[in-house]
Amino acid sequence: MRTIIEPFRVRSVEPIRATTRTERQAALEAAGWNLFGLAGRDVLIDLLTDSGTGAMSSEQWAAIMRGDESYAGSPSFERFETVVRELTGFTHVIPTHQGRAAERILFSELVGDGDIVPNNTHFDTTRANIEHQGAEARDLIWPDNEDLPLVAPFKGDTDVDALEALLAGPDGARVPLVTTTVTNNSGGGQPVSLGNLHQVREVCARFGVPFFLDAARFAENAWFIGQREEGQQGRHPRDIARDMFRAADGCWISLKKDGLGNIGGVLAMNDPDLAERCRALLILTEGFPTYGGLAGRDLEALAQGLIEVTDPEYLAYRVRTAEYLAELAWDAGVPTVRPPGGHAVYLDAKALLPHIPAYEFPAQALACELYLTGGVRGVEIGTLMFGRPREGQAHDHVARHELVRLALPRRTYTQSHVDYVGEVIGDVAGRADELRGLRIVSQPRWLRHFTAQLTPLAG
Ligand code: F0G
Question: Are 69 and 292 in contact (CB under 8 A)?
């Protein structure tokens, strides 16, 4: 088999800056041991997120020049709406400035105090927006997802039996909508099968509850379905993606991922009454319905991105990059969630650092050491992100897993950048027993991982 190459060549370059360990130590201390607090220029390889950090194509830059900035009725919106309708099949297309704006609008309309919103695994902003409405965000992930090393094709699948039991039980009336995240970002970037989406749809239809997709990485999910699902092999990823959306009543998409844009989101659905209520809220906080929170030029770039992203060559390269990085981690003896996700590799800090208890944030310790060692920035997905302080107790409620996500920006880094990251992981893994945990010095009420300040514990 030949090397799967980057299916593009470079036309414009952006220098990245190497720093010394001493400089990185000072930067991390100034940031309160929170990688979100670092200046981008102090990071060499930035794997904090794959959101809005990708490179646009020459066709997208050309589309930017076509952007029409009419306040109402822009032709750029028409183009955007046409592409989103063709892809999703939903009639009502509501642009937003990013995914969480769509979440806030949808949940403000549908979710109330005491409600329960099931999902396979909620992303952190989704969870926070549901909790902000006074509701509970409940994860109903297929139980095998908990088994991190287990290799299975669709570890993002919803536990349909648990969903059915919830809807049929005494709390069923408290469920205003059911949601599924594709791919399942917080659960390891794992795909959801088309069969599972159809099962969830069937259960929702039986109980008369709307079903929405959180479709930030719909194209990667479609690629996995085409590779792994019985009966789907050989189909074009776009046809599979179209079927995924047609299993639901609506969706929201952060277009900073598979929209191949640097900003943008969309909320789409078939229900005309709900759409009208959402548009009213949109006007209040985001903007007129033909631009949402976006410029006409953004809508153009996103429309083009939504076409490019289902190119099979692009998706083969994309998914292979994550797999290649995972193989480098395994070679270095670092366990990861298996199989690797579409957009990221999730290092298992609990397995690598058994001497650091979860309440001392082992995944944050690992993320910090990757930065100190090689200027590589990842993100903690563990007790710093999902833990909660406990009234009168010394230690937080801890998360189920302690992971470091290394997310790959789209079309941005080359294979030698990925090789370098593998070397940094190897270096840190060789000194794993020297790593120490951290404690929180201060934290906000919501989404604490973004701004909490920490300090390392003495060795
Ligand atoms: N849903 C999922 C599955 C996401 O991954 C994200 C963002 C959102 C919703 C919110 O979208 O950022 O456009 O407001 N994920 C980014 C990440 C931030 O790093 O995984 P947004």
Answer: no
Contacts 24+ apart (CB under 8 A), 397-401: 398/358, 398/359, 399/358, 400/146, 401/148, 401/348, 401/350
Tens digit of pLDDT for each residue in 20-42? 999 999 999 999 999 999 999 99
Do 262 and 143 lie in one domain? The reply is yes
CB 213 near ligand 1, within 6 Å? no
HSE-CB for 205 with a 13 A CA cutoff = 9
What CATH number did the domain enclosing 209 receive?
3.40.640.10
Query: CA angle, corner 82, sides to 77 and 85, nearest 5?
Result: 120
pLDDT band, residue 187 (cuts 50/70/90):
confident
Residue 257 bears catalytic tag: yes
The one catalytic residue among 92, 257, 350, 417: 257
Q: How many distinct structural domains can be found in the chain? A: 2
| Contact yes or no for 310/219 (Cβ under 8 A) | yes
Report which protein residue has its CA nearest ligand 1's atom 21: 99
Distance CA 77, CA 294 (A): 10
Share of the chain above pLDDT 90, in %: 94
Same domain, 362 and 276: no
pLDDT tens by residue, 163-173: 999 999 999 99
Per-residue DSSP letter, 348: E
For residues 83 and 75, the answer to whether their CB atoms sit within 8 Å is no
* pLDDT class of 392 with cuts at 50, 70, 90: confident
Q: Is residue 39 annotated as part of the catalytic site, yes or no?
A: no
Please confirm, yes or no, whether 449 is among the known catalytic residues: yes
Same domain, 284 and 320: no
Reduced to 3 states (helix: H, G, I; strand: E, B; else coil), residue 406 is strand
CB 126 less than 6 A from any atom of ligand 1:
yes
Q: Is the CB of 121 under 6 A from ligand 1?
A: no
Residue 292 Cβ < 6 Å to ligand 1: no
Mean pLDDT of 282-293: 96
Residue 370 in tokens: 């990757």
CA distance 292 to 287: 5
Residues 249 and 225 in one domain: yes
Indicate whether 14 belongs to any domain: no
Active site includes 211?
no
